[in-house]
Amino acid sequence: MVAMKEFLKLVRWQNLLIVILTMVLMRYAIIGSLLSKISVVMLNGTGEAVPMVLQFPWYDFVILVIATVCITAGGYVINDYFDIRTDLINRGQVIVGTKISRRKAIMWHSIFNIIGVAAGFYVSWRANYFWLGIFFLIVSGLLYFYSASYKRQFLIGNLVVALLTALVPMLVAVFEWAALYRHYVVSVTDLPDLSLIFGWVGGFSIFAFLTTLTREIIKDIEDFEGDMAYGRNTVPVITGIPASKIIVASISIITIALLYFVWYRYLHDRITLVYLSAIIVLPHLYVLFQLFRSRNRKELHSASNFMKIIMFGGILYSLVVKAILTLNLI
Questions:
Q1: What is the pTM of this model?
Q2: Which of 183, 259, 283, 294 satisfies CB 3.0 to 4.6 Å to 299 for a cystine?
Q3: What average pLDDT does this structure show over 122-132?
């Protein structure tokens, strides 16, 4: 029982659930809801317009989720493997090397990546784009080199993690678009523009990128002592903690500005305005307040955790979108 508890900690089971939730909501709450508002005339139909529906099989979608989760879990394992020394300074305890042996950690990293990459190639083959499987192989390698090298380099590690996080929603859109195009291009009189899907999902991806980048730099500030001791060139180590806080504030302000710009330019509804202001913007400002008044690791850790709540709130906005589209509230 203890071993299972430590194993779940090692793979960050809460984060894996967020990955699953993100992919499910992108498929059903965003893409599915958008498709229901796009009508097409089927070649073998009655001539009446019918709404589009999801075409990527649910069982293939499950395999896509498994591939993503396994590669993510493998990334967490190898990260802890390479972070034993710094984690001892920053957190005073580690899992790899104490609760779980280094050999077993490498074994689990290998198992997760083999399953993830194999599932990625399989689902890419099922989508008639076998070459897309290379993406899963590249991500697996990036996560390894992130832990082994990139996270020690100025800003590169932060950007890699933020980019990979942003790709999770887009992965759903890419595979669904491929299935939609393959099905509807030969079965409708006029194939509609499906770029709207990438526009909406891309918005979630950009939000994920910016908030993840913000949180990663906050975590680096939190881990300043251990990173400094082992010569890691993180943003706080290179620029100093005060400058790093200003960088975090700048990214946060850009995020908030983009949210309001998108609302003003494309949405205009009150529901979204209230949601963004209450669930995203105000908590963002609270994080910045916490960050600038922080005097110890506990307060910085609290700010980092609050960023996770903001990111979760961003994901749940997909349910608001579904409600708006389903109930025709715009």
A1: 0.94
A2: 294
A3: 94
